[in-house]
Design goal:
Blueprint (H helix, E strand, L loop, with lengths): L1 H21 L15 H4 L5 E5 L5 E2 L4 E8 L8 E6 L2 E7 L4 E5 L6 E10 L5 E10 L6 E12 L6 E7 L2 E6 L6 E5 L6 E6 L6 E7 L2 E6 L4 E6 L5 E6 L8 E3 L4 E4 L4 E5 L6 E6 L10 E7 L2 E6 L4 E5 L6 E6 L16 E7 L4 E6 L4 E9 L1
Parallel strand pairs: 2-8, 9-25
Antiparallel strand pairs: 1-3, 3-6, 4-5, 4-7, 7-8, 9-28, 10-11, 11-12, 12-13, 14-15, 15-16, 16-17, 18-19, 19-20, 20-21, 22-23, 23-24, 24-25, 26-27, 27-28
Length: 370
């Protein structure tokens, strides 16, 4: 009996030891080894970037001269590999500290330059910095010629604008005033009209495959209507904090949110297929508002300006900009007049129409390169 008790005590003691070693991690890794020591986690990097500097600006295709500095705290790395947005660009070995990288295929926007240093024994260190890539294209400057004008409802705070089969389609904003409407160009008569709920602020519209899509400002909800009857077919939701302009390329919705970003959205599932950052040859081009897709190019009003920019949908590069100042004459201004906003394209007759919030007129214009 005494021998049996000693055996049982020994087994129990070993069980306690086993439990205490493995507690806290279902993988079976002892708790003392599940995280690296604090000193290792906070250890200073062995390398830093001497060039380029964080947030330095480049044009796509520019040669990136990369130079790193070794702290000298330990032996140099066996090799260092450099990546731009996850794509390997160059490498150095041993005591080398300089190399170069080609940015030929970089789209405009903020991209990250990362270096990963490989040391003996399997140790690695990584460090990254942001770089800004602008467009390598000088936008063509345009002015305009007015070809004609049409009446426009001065109560319409224009947020979305389309031309289709001889009629204007317009989405309007403001709480308690938001609507979807169809108007006759010659007279301005409203042929069809649908109010939005008073708690919604209407935004951009676009026509795709017999359906009208309409955004709202900060409600993160949009609506789909039958283009002929204006019957609501569906609601959809999006993650952007704000909805602004909307157009389409025939297969995707293209959405702006008042920043320099454009989002390409699946019109069935409303997932973001891709997004682009819009840049000219100097900086990002923000405040993108009402949109229209014309002959493979995105045309965008810029909020609080008299400018329309033309954007390459593949790269986000601004390829042209139209100065629309002076379009609205002093005699046509009234107390509620607001900014230029509204671009519509007649695909059949190749006609361009523009208007603004509470403007009394819609203008047919031709853009002329300066």
């Amino acid at each position: 009996m005494i021998l049996l008790k000693r055996v049982l005590i020994a087994v129990a003691f070993l069980g306690v030891l086993t439990f205490s070693c493995c507690v806290g991690d279902k993988s079976g890794i002892p708790a003392s080894q599940s995280t690296a020591p604090a000193a290792t986690q906070n250890a200073p990097k062995s390398y830093s970037f001497e060039s380029p500097k964080a947030n330095q600006t480049f044009s796509p295709g520019a040669k990136l001269d990369i130079k790193v500095k070794h702290s000298g705290n330990e032996a140099p790395a066996d090799s260092i590999v450099f990546y731009i947005d996850g794509i390997k660009s160059s490498a150095i070995v041993g005591s080398e500290t300089a190399t170069s990288a080609n940015s030929e295929f970089m789209s405009p926007g903020i991209r990250r330059l990362k270096m990963t240093a490989f040391f003996g024994g399997g140790k690695t260190e990584s460090l990254s910095i942001p770089l800004r890539f602008v467009s390598d294209i000088l936008p063509k400057p345009y002015t305009y010629q007015v070809v004609g004008s049409f009446p426009h409802d001065t109560r319409a705070y224009t947020q979305g604008f389309e031309y289709n089969n001889g009629f204007f389609l317009e989405g309007t904003g403001q709480y308690g005033e938001s609507s979807l409407r169809k108007t006759l160009p010659g007279t301005g008569d409203i042929i069809k009209f649908r109010n939005l709920s008073s708690d919604l602020f209407g935004e951009g519209i676009t026509l795709l495959n017999g359906k009208i899509y309409q955004l709202t400002y900060r409600s993160q909800v949009g609506f789909i209507y039958d283009a002929e009857s204006f019957e609501q077919l569906q609601k959809f939701f999006y993650q952007n904090r704000e909805g602004w302009g909307l157009c389409n390329n025939g297969s995707e919705l293209i959405m702006s949110d008042g920043t320099h970003m454009l989002y390409f959205i699946d019109p069935q599932y409303f997932s973001v297929n891709r997004k682009i950052e819009v840049y000219d040859n100097v900086s990002e081009v923000d405040s993108l508002n009402e949109l229209e897709f014309i002959n493979g190019t995105i045309y965008a009003n810029r909020y609080m300006t008299d400018e329309i920019v033309m954007i390459d949908p593949a790269t986000g590069k601004v390829i042209g900009r139209a100065d629309m100042r002076g379009l609205l004459k002093p005699e046509d201004r009234h107390s509620r007049i607001d900014v230029l906003n509204g671009i519509a394209w007649d695909r059949e007759q190749k006609r361009l129409f523009v208007t603004g919030k509470y403007w009394p007129k819609i203008y047919r214009v031709e853009l002329v390169e300066k």
